[in-house]
């Protein structure tokens, strides 16, 4: 374990660390202790209600998720970092959502997968800190292990968890990724911020599937992000009409949030749109072969759902599109697809056009 610091020395080190973090492309850095009892109680309640659906990983690992010292022995502090991803150059989201012939993809997934980029930057920061203080225990995380990243970010002062359950910052909105460094370095903790959602219910009201069942309560089983990304089987029919043209994720609760008028455009070229994914034609994407899917989306977070779910999601969107010969023809071409999952969703989509 690294040496103990006086309050003054600790604050000076913290200030230097924040400068190093900014130089590596992070917009903010804070430090929290490892007391996550409040978050643990909320997690257990959420799991007890079954809101996690088929995301079994949320219930695995016992208490490691809410006890950082169990996940990484010796941990006494968590360094939390924020990196903005809003692609300012992308097509205007509401215009894409209003065009039933185009596909809407969550803005975080338009460019390269953030996991590798963030992990490399976190490791560089940890090594830079180590050069300053000497050998220390640490491990970096980017949505890659049982880590309560939102609760940690809130404790570290990077923002507050809003009614939509995303972390919000008064000066940057919610379009940012989070990363963590678990460490045995006895750093001073940074102050948490207060919540500023007030009486606003915009995110609750806008949700297409009413997945935000109450302030700060998300039933993932109803969430379009869960349905299009995490769910591997058939999408429940009751939700299909509500999905519109959203084929990978859903940003409605963030798009309508008043605080996102302060969102900052990303400075990372890797987060900018690739392959025209900010406003692509549904039929064009539906016609990709599996090889095209794999090659065009190389390095993209979208690849993790696989080609079968990709076609499943687009079939639903085409079912919600305005009836036209090109739409019907595209669906009919995959009516005998080798995947039963794809066939089932194509049949449903054709039924919406009264042509099964």
UniProtKB/TrEMBL annotation:
<feature type="binding site">
    <location>
        <position position="250"/>
    </location>
    <ligand>
        <name>[4Fe-4S] cluster 2</name>
    </ligand>
</feature>
<keyword id="KW-0963">Cytoplasm</keyword>
<protein>
    <recommendedName>
        <fullName>Epoxyqueuosine reductase</fullName>
        <ecNumber>1.17.99.6</ecNumber>
    </recommendedName>
</protein>
<keyword id="KW-0479">Metal-binding</keyword>
<comment type="similarity">
    <text>Belongs to the QueG family.</text>
</comment>
<dbReference type="Pfam" id="PF08331">
    <property type="entry name" value="QueG_DUF1730"/>
</dbReference>
<feature type="binding site">
    <location>
        <position position="197"/>
    </location>
    <ligand>
        <name>[4Fe-4S] cluster 1</name>
    </ligand>
</feature>
<comment type="function">
    <text>Catalyzes the conversion of epoxyqueuosine (oQ) to queuosine (Q), which is a hypermodified base found in the wobble positions of tRNA(Asp), tRNA(Asn), tRNA(His) and tRNA(Tyr).</text>
</comment>
<keyword id="KW-0819">tRNA processing</keyword>
<dbReference type="Pfam" id="PF13484">
    <property type="entry name" value="Fer4_16"/>
</dbReference>
<feature type="binding site">
    <location>
        <position position="257"/>
    </location>
    <ligand>
        <name>[4Fe-4S] cluster 1</name>
    </ligand>
</feature>
<feature type="binding site">
    <location>
        <position position="207"/>
    </location>
    <ligand>
        <name>[4Fe-4S] cluster 2</name>
    </ligand>
</feature>
<dbReference type="GO" id="GO:0052693">
    <property type="term" value="F:epoxyqueuosine reductase activity"/>
</dbReference>
<keyword id="KW-0004">4Fe-4S</keyword>
<keyword id="KW-0408">Iron</keyword>
<feature type="binding site">
    <location>
        <begin position="250"/>
        <end position="251"/>
    </location>
    <ligand>
        <name>cob(II)alamin</name>
    </ligand>
</feature>
<comment type="pathway">
    <text>tRNA modification; tRNA-queuosine biosynthesis.</text>
</comment>
<dbReference type="InterPro" id="IPR013542">
    <property type="entry name" value="QueG_DUF1730"/>
</dbReference>
<feature type="binding site">
    <location>
        <position position="178"/>
    </location>
    <ligand>
        <name>cob(II)alamin</name>
    </ligand>
</feature>
<feature type="binding site">
    <location>
        <position position="223"/>
    </location>
    <ligand>
        <name>[4Fe-4S] cluster 2</name>
    </ligand>
</feature>
<dbReference type="GO" id="GO:0046872">
    <property type="term" value="F:metal ion binding"/>
</dbReference>
<keyword id="KW-0411">Iron-sulfur</keyword>
<feature type="binding site">
    <location>
        <position position="143"/>
    </location>
    <ligand>
        <name>cob(II)alamin</name>
    </ligand>
</feature>
<feature type="binding site">
    <location>
        <position position="200"/>
    </location>
    <ligand>
        <name>[4Fe-4S] cluster 1</name>
    </ligand>
</feature>
<dbReference type="GO" id="GO:0005737">
    <property type="term" value="C:cytoplasm"/>
</dbReference>
<keyword id="KW-0560">Oxidoreductase</keyword>
<keyword id="KW-0170">Cobalt</keyword>
<comment type="subunit">
    <text>Monomer.</text>
</comment>
<feature type="binding site">
    <location>
        <position position="167"/>
    </location>
    <ligand>
        <name>cob(II)alamin</name>
    </ligand>
</feature>
<feature type="binding site">
    <location>
        <position position="65"/>
    </location>
    <ligand>
        <name>cob(II)alamin</name>
    </ligand>
</feature>
<feature type="binding site">
    <location>
        <position position="203"/>
    </location>
    <ligand>
        <name>[4Fe-4S] cluster 1</name>
    </ligand>
</feature>
<feature type="binding site">
    <location>
        <position position="225"/>
    </location>
    <ligand>
        <name>cob(II)alamin</name>
    </ligand>
</feature>
<dbReference type="GO" id="GO:0031419">
    <property type="term" value="F:cobalamin binding"/>
</dbReference>
<dbReference type="GO" id="GO:0051539">
    <property type="term" value="F:4 iron, 4 sulfur cluster binding"/>
</dbReference>
<feature type="domain" description="4Fe-4S ferredoxin-type">
    <location>
        <begin position="186"/>
        <end position="217"/>
    </location>
</feature>
<keyword id="KW-0671">Queuosine biosynthesis</keyword>
<dbReference type="InterPro" id="IPR004453">
    <property type="entry name" value="QueG"/>
</dbReference>
<dbReference type="GO" id="GO:0008616">
    <property type="term" value="P:tRNA queuosine(34) biosynthetic process"/>
</dbReference>
<dbReference type="InterPro" id="IPR017896">
    <property type="entry name" value="4Fe4S_Fe-S-bd"/>
</dbReference>
<feature type="active site" description="Proton donor">
    <location>
        <position position="143"/>
    </location>
</feature>
<keyword id="KW-0846">Cobalamin</keyword>
<feature type="binding site">
    <location>
        <position position="253"/>
    </location>
    <ligand>
        <name>[4Fe-4S] cluster 2</name>
    </ligand>
</feature>
């Amino acid at each position: 374990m690294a040496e103990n610091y006086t309050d003054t020395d600790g604050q000076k080190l913290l200030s230097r660390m924040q400068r190093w973090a900014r130089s590596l492309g992070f917009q903010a850095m804070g430090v929290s202790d490892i007391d996550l009892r409040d978050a643990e109680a909320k997690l257990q309640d959420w799991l007890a209600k079954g809101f996690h659906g088929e995301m079994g990983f949320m219930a695995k690992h016992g208490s490691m998720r809410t006890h950082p010292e169990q996940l990484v022995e010796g941990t006494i502090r968590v360094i939390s970092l924020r990196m903005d991803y809003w692609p300012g150059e992308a097509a205007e989201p509401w215009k894409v959502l209003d065009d039933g012939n185009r596909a809407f993809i969550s803005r975080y997934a338009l460019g390269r997968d953030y996991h590798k980029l963030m992990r490399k930057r976190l490791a560089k920061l940890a090594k830079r800190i180590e050069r300053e203080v000497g050998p220390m225990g640490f491990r970096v995380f980017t949505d890659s292990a049982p880590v309560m990243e939102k609760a940690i970010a809130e404790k570290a002062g990077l923002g507050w968890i809003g009614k939509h359950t995303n972390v919000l910052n008064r000066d940057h909105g919610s379009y940012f990724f989070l990363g963590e460094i678990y460490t045995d370095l006895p750093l001073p903790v940074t102050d948490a911020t207060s919540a500023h959602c007030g009486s606003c219910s915009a995110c609750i009201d806008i949700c297409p599937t009413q997945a935000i069942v109450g302030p700060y309560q998300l039933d993932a089983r109803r969430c379009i992000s869960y349905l299009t990304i995490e769910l591997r089987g058939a999408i429940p029919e009751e939700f299909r009409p509500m999905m519109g043209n959203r084929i990978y994720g859903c940003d409605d609760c963030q798009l309508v949030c008043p605080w996102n008028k302060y969102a900052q455009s990303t400075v990372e070229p890797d987060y900018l749109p690739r392959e025209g994914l900010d406003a692509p034609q549904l039929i064009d994407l539906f016609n990709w072969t599996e090889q095209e899917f794999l090659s065009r989306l190389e390095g993209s977070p979208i690849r993790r759902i696989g080609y079968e779910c990709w076609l499943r999601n687009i079939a639903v969107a085409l079912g919600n599109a305005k009836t036209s010969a090109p739409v019907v023809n595209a669906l009919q071409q995959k009516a005998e697809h080798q995947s039963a999952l794809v066939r089932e969703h194509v049949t449903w989509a054709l039924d919406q056009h009264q042509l099964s």
